[in-house]
Design goal:
Strand content: 15-25%
Strand order of the largest sheet: 1-5-8-11-9
Number of helices: 20
């Protein structure tokens, strides 16, 4: 049987063999991706995929894992499975035996998963077999769902006793309009709850059965049985008092937020680069191409290009107390006044071509005082309301401070300032749960463009040394850079270079340790602080990686010291 035609019953009966099939990348291409296709092209109660970031998690949902159904006409009964479905299957003249010893209650974990925030167009990957399939194939699958035994379904995602009872005398064939007490009237923006705008963004409620524990902001690829029953987006009458805002939020229309009953979850971390060894072997050549582009876009500044390459390769490799080893936040200053209104955005547009995920944040007094940067718990709706900094790891945050003016920060502004500072310095973000706060670890590279030193403490500031000719011809420089990146092989190599080397194992051998210690003694006598020394080590590691080296050698160490001394000499306080 083709994967797209599996039913939940078939999967449950053949789970072991099905899981083996689902391990094959070729098999997965048969499944429609909810990220890329219209829901009308997806067959209800069949397998589909969704890739996204865990934005929120709800309380566990109780359901009947097994339940006994009795036919009121014949008196016969059988036991049915309630897994991978939102509704119990009850035909005419059937009812669930609520007091049966054969019933089995269970709980499933509920996660809200959204399209990855900041995912750039080239990284979205729109090639799926589902899109290539003909409309007739989809329609055939959908028609197959409608040709059944005229059975009705009853929502069983909460204890059935709380729902309207289905008995022998009940009219279970009533229309959807009659069975729904009301359709919720909430905005699409409220339902989707994206931290930042996402073009074509989707949301999905994922229901997990095997006890897999997911974390907020984790990126996952889910395979599961999709549930598109329109009655899931309605509220049924109940004797219990219910919070309308909460019910509306937790029960969005499946046409907007489908349910996906997971059978397999791939927890995604670093991207697998199939030709990583080849990329590493020619790292120096690829680095040369990248350095040419960046130095020209940075007004001819080769030193700044070196530092920016290190920044693009940075990622946390170990956390120790308050230190996040591997981060390399960068503050670029002193660019021409004539370009201050356009340069940060133009440069960001180029970054979106080579990094998978990024977000551009304009840091103005108004935005600081008004933007919701920090995720907050909304107890009325019982959900986590996104903040603009709720991003997945390795999302490059580019901050533009050129529009920042003097003024007074409000309470919100001070909180946003603290959030940005903690993110940059400690790679953590404090979520607001009203009655308490909770820290979440992040791994978000931060790049700041500002006229002078950033108002957010950034240990690594590079003041540009602007080449006058590059400034005068900057429009031509930008166009030349665009043309340079039109070479698809060159662009693909740069993207794979950044991804492969970011996660390459790196060591510092003992033979170089003595050289470093001797140089540290000399540097201390030159009034270089301990913090600066830490920066020397981080820079040396990233510089080595940028050349494809997996261990620090004397040549890279000496070069890093030279670069850092030149950077420090440019700063105003060192003149």
């Amino acid at each position: 049987m083709e994967i797209r035609n599996w039913t939940s019953d078939y999967y449950i009966t053949n789970e072991s063999s099905c899981q083996q099939i689902l391990e094959s990348p070729d098999a997965l291409r048969e499944l429609p991706s909810l990220n890329n296709v219209q829901l009308r092209e997806v067959a209800d109660k069949r397998l589909a995929r969704f890739r996204g970031m865990v934005q929120d998690m709800y309380n566990p949902e109780y359901y009947f894992k097994r339940y006994e159904v009795r036919n009121s006409r014949t008196g016969e009964s059988d036991v049915r499975c309630g897994m991978y479905a939102d509704a119990a299957r009850c035909s005419l003249h059937e009812e669930i035996s609520l007091d049966s010893d054969r019933n089995e209650n269970a709980e499933r974990q509920i996660y809200v998963v959204i399209s990855e925030p900041g995912l750039n167009d080239w990284a979205k990957g729109t090639s799926t077999n589902a899109q290539e399939a003909s409309p007739a194939t989809h329609n055939s699958n959908i028609r197959e769902q409608n040709v059944n035994d005229n059975s009705e379904e009853m929502d069983c995602s909460e204890p059935v006793a709380k729902k309207a009872k289905i008995g022998a005398d009940d009219d279970v064939s009533m229309s959807n309009a009659e069975s729904a007490a009301k359709v919720q009237n909430v905005s699409e923006e409220h339902i989707l709850n994206f931290p930042i705008p996402i073009d074509g963004g989707k949301a999905c409620i994922v229901k997990v059965y095997d006890g897999t524990v997911l974390k907020l902001n984790q990126v996952i690829d889910v395979i599961g049985f999709v549930s598109l029953d329109p009655t899931l987006g309605t509220v049924h009458d109940s004797e219990d008092e219910m919070n309308d805002a909460e019910v509306s939020t937790h029960n969005p229309p499946p046409s907007l937020v489908p349910r996906l009953h997971a059978v397999r979850i791939n927890q995604l971390g670093k991207s697998e680069i199939p030709n990583a060894p080849e990329i590493v072997s020619k790292a120096q050549l690829i680095r040369g191409d990248l350095h040419i582009i960046l130095s020209q876009l940075l007004f001819g500044d080769h030193l700044a290009a070196d530092y920016l390459i290190c920044h693009l390769l940075s990622t946390i490799f170990v956390r120790r107390d308050c230190l996040c080893l591997g981060t390399f936040p960068l503050n670029i200053t002193n660019f021409p006044a004539s370009k201050r209104d356009t340069f940060p955005r133009e440069f960001y547009n180029f970054l979106t071509l080579i990094v998978k995920k990024s977000h551009f944040l304009e840091v103005t007094l108004e935005n600081l005082n008004e933007l919701a940067l920090i995720p907050k718990k909304d107890y009325e709706c019982d959900r986590l309301t996104s903040g603009a900094l709720q991003l997945s790891d390795n999302t490059h945050l580019v901050m533009d401070e050129t529009g920042l003016t003097t003024g007074e920060l409000t309470v919100t502004g001070k909180g946003n300032y603290s959030a940005l500072s903690d993110l940059l310095m400690f790679q953590k973000l404090t979520y607001d749960f009203k009655y308490y706060t909770m820290e979440y670890e992040t791994d978000i590279p931060v790049l700041i463009f500002s006229d002078v030193k950033s108002f957010i403490p950034c240990p690594m500031q590079i003041a540009l040394n602007v080449d006058a000719e590059s400034e005068n011809l900057y429009g031509q420089v930008v166009e030349a850079a665009r043309q340079y990146l039109k070479d698809e092989n060159r662009l693909a190599n740069i993207r794979q270079y950044l991804e492969a080397l970011r996660h390459t194992e790196f060591v510092i051998n003992e033979d170089i340790t003595k050289v470093i210690q001797e140089d540290f003694v000399k540097l201390r006598s030159a009034n270089i602080s301990v913090n600066n020394m830490h920066a020397f080590m981080v820079l040396a590691r990233l510089m080595s990686l940028s050349y494809g080296k997996t261990a620090l050698d004397t040549e890279c160490w000496k070069k890093s010291v030279q670069l850092e001394m030149e950077r420090l000499s440019r700063l105003p306080q060192r003149g």
